[in-house]
Design goal:
alpha+beta; Aminopeptidase; 2 domains; GNAT_dom; N-acetyltransferase
Length: 296
């Protein structure tokens, strides 16, 4: 009995469909963002997505205030479902392309197509950056978490991007080691809904140490900055200030606290050994390493 002849396989599979993101896609986009959510990050809300799509968020750092209105496209699967999303823009002052964020459930083919689509839309010969600024979709996450998102990291490298900057993303939980009881040396200054500033003054008046912490969002607080003047280091002041910062956050509703340790030189000093030792000793654990990227 003759065997059926299989149908010929097309030499080139049809390219996935990409189109602009619409309001009807927002639910699917939120699901894609949430699929990549890290420990210590809140669930992305419709308000956060709206800010990311329209560039309405007020961020302390980054390029969101100096870029053109971002463009966001979605990738559709065979059944017309949204399988990926990518957002990019252009920085007018130097013409650089900016891949702001993308999500595709870490499916290698999906994220590679999203990267290729963004670059093709920007122009292949334009210098480009990727994940080089915090987006409104997260609680200040400044770059790509490479351990949790290896497919995106690989797609960027395959497209010619290389690492530009790195951070250590760390988390402290209330169920872990509790902040040590310590004399509250710092003056706690409210900054309204934003959070608090903790300031320690030396005996002669000038600041000796300072910290800035963000008010909890969905039970997640953040240590944004902690610094000790050179003349007051090596005496435990930094540890005491950090403990007071943690107690301030936990006393105001935080269940966990996050921070980012950047690896960039500050004031000519690029050794983060002391800072990492401080956070490790306080009970913070590393969640991921974060990378931003550049393509000449």
């Amino acid at each position: 009995m003759a065997q059926p002849v299989p149908e010929p396989v097309p030499e080139h599979a049809p390219r996935p469909t990409v189109r602009p993101c619409t309001a009807e896609d927002h639910g699917a986009v939120l699901a894609l963002v949430d699929a990549d959510r890290l420990p210590g990050q809140p669930v992305c809300t419709a308000e956060m997505l709206h800010a990311a799509l329209s560039r309405t968020a007020v961020l302390e750092t980054g390029w969101w205030s100096e870029i053109e209105p971002p463009r966001t496209d979605v990738l559709l699967g065979a059944e017309g479902q949204v399988t990926g999303v990518v957002c990019w823009s252009v920085r007018p002052r130097d013409g650089a392309g900016i891949v702001l964020w993308l999500h595709g459930r870490e499916h290698p083919g999906t994220v590679r197509h999203l990267v290729d689509h963004a670059l093709a839309s920007l122009g292949e010969h334009r210098p480009a950056h990727a994940f080089a600024s915090a987006s409104p979709l997260t609680l200040g996450l400044p770059a790509l978490p490479v351990t949790h998102r290896p497919a995106t990291d690989r797609a960027l490298r395959d497209a010619g991007f290389g690492p530009a900057a790195s951070w250590r993303y760390m988390r402290h939980t209330r169920s872990g080691s509790a902040p040590a009881e310590a004399y509250p040396l710092a003056e706690v200054i409210s900054q309204g809904e934003a959070g608090w500033r903790l300031k320690v003054r030396s005996h002669d008046g000038p600041p000796a140490a300072e910290a800035t912490v963000d008010a909890p969002v969905d039970g997640i607080g953040a240590v944004r900055w902690i610094g000790v003047e050179a003349a007051h280091r090596d005496n435990g002041l930094g540890s005491t200030l950090l403990q007071q910062a943690l107690r301030t956050l936990y006393g105001n509703g935080a269940r966990e606290v996050i921070l980012y340790v950047d690896d960039q030189p500050v004031g000519g000093v690029d050794d983060r050994t002391a800072a990492n030792r401080l956070y490790d000793a306080a009970g913070f654990t590393e969640i991921d390493r974060l990378l931003s990227y550049v393509r000449p």
